[in-house]
Amino acid sequence: MKHKALLTCIFISLITSCTNRESSMMHSNTIDIEAGLQNTTKFNISDFGKSIRYIPLETTDESLIGNKPVFKVLKNHIVVEVNNRCLLFDKKDGRFISAIGHIGQDPEAYSSVSCWTDEKEEFLYFIRQPNQLIKYDMKGTFCGKTEFPSSPGLASYYLLTDLEIIGHYTGINNSGNLVLGFFDKEGVLLDTVPLLTSEIENSFDNIESISVTKGDFTYGNWGKTGVIIIDYKNDKKQIITANAATLWKNKKEIRFKESFVDTIYTIVNHKLIPSITFHTGKWHWPEQERTSKNKTNERIFIADVSENNTFIFFQCIKGFYSDEPVLYNGLYNKKTGETKLAKNSDVIKDNLTGFMPFNPQNMSTSGEFASLIEAGNIMEWLEEHSEAKENKKLAFLKEFNEDMNPVIVLVEEAD
User: Fold this and answer.
1) pLDDT(206) > 90
2) pLDDT digit string (tens) for 132-190?
3) How many CA atoms lie within 13 A of 302 on its CB side?
4) Which class for 192: exposed (0-12), middle (13-18), buried (19 or more C-beta within 10 A)?
5) Closest C-alpha to 307, from 221, 372, 367
6) Taking the CA of residue 92 as centre, how many other CA atoms within 13 Å lie in the half-sphere pointing to its CB?
7) Strand pairing class (77-82; 96-99)
């Protein structure tokens, strides 16, 4: 019971994503990871897009960003989550707009700084334990709440459309026999999708140790907001992350990707339609062995997935349960069907402006590849590349210093 109570406390701040079963269906759209691993490449920024933009975030006493922030890029705004604060900036020029809400116990407070936006991007939604989403507008004004039934309760991840709220239920947070819940805007449960996988056999009594890390990119973008590492006494293991993007929208299609399931689904009328398959071949990780540490170096875990009109960008990990996991970046071109993989350790060179290597950390709701570079890293780079200040494409560097906020980098997809 002590282990269970501890995990419950951890999950209040780390909304999790967990484990899962392989689909047996065949699909015409295939992301060939097996072939990509046999012939890895190296990426340049031009592989992701043809134009690049730098947005220095305004630095004020109120908007000062600490270390290891998590950010989201919307159509008109940039959201930064750091040190239990949510800060909103203008996407056009990086101007600071407002701090959004606060963590606490009063009626307008939320339990976790992680948030989601609605389809029109007019509001930000935050979890408030035990069963609410708190809503703020883009000026930082409290705009009410949505209350969900105690069963199934709060989900681990949300997507808000014009018509409804979709929640993804995962792992230990999942108290019901479902993977997706569909709600109206008042929180009334409309429909569900049953679990795609069997339950994990390991019990709380069999836990040997639990550790938590935050701001660690060992597991790539998938683990950037934090991971919980659970070691069991029977040589089993689980690594659970917080807020990995499992639901997203591209054009009019709503997508869903579950961990340890090699399929991207399209949600149509509350049903899961298999749309794109990751072909892992000899690297396949059987669902029934998803907590086994055996053969971890011979298996691939598909981690972070995002999508725009041209590409599906993904990260996958070889040796997920090993002491030295190997992270790969992957690009699947939806127009040509081509899959390319590169080791994350092979930096993505900026062959458009000659600036620092690019590290795609997420994708904006407009389809731009997005990255964040902290001021200290920029100043360290400038010590060896002082001539970059004379580059007209990098004009922001002339006034830049180590006390400033980070810079957001956006790469727009090719036509």
Assistant:
1) no
2) 999 999 999 999 999 999 989 999 999 999 999 999 998 655 556 899 999 999 999 99
3) 35
4) middle
5) 367
6) 2
7) unpaired
19, 134, 363, 413, 414 from 309: Cα distances, Å: 28, 31, 11, 8, 10
Q: 28: exposed, middle or buried (C-beta count within 10 Å: 0-12, 13-18, 19+)?
A: exposed
Q: To the nearest 10°, report the CA torsion of 132, 138, 141, 144.
A: -30
**Dihedral sign (CA 109, 114, 118, 120):** positive
pLDDT band for position 415 (50/70/90)?
A: low
φ, ψ dihedrals at 330, nearest 5°: -130, 145
Residue with tokens 């810079």: 407
Among 141, 191, 135, 138, which Cα is nearest to 160's? 135
Is a pLDDT exceeding 50 seen at residue 345?
yes
Look up residue 348 and give its two tokens: 């993505």
Cα dihedral 61, 76, 376, 395 in deg (nearest 10): -110
Three-class SS of residue 37? helix
Distance CA 191, CA 181 (A): 6
The predicted structure's pLDDT at residue 204: 72
pLDDT (tens digit, 9 = 90+) per residue, 50-92? 999 999 999 999 999 988 899 999 999 999 999 999 999 999 9
> How far is CA 135 from each of CA 104, 153, 379, rounded to the nearest angstrom?
15, 17, 38
Token pair listed for 291:
């907590």
Is the previous residue joined to 56 through a cis bond, with omega within 30 degrees of 0?
no
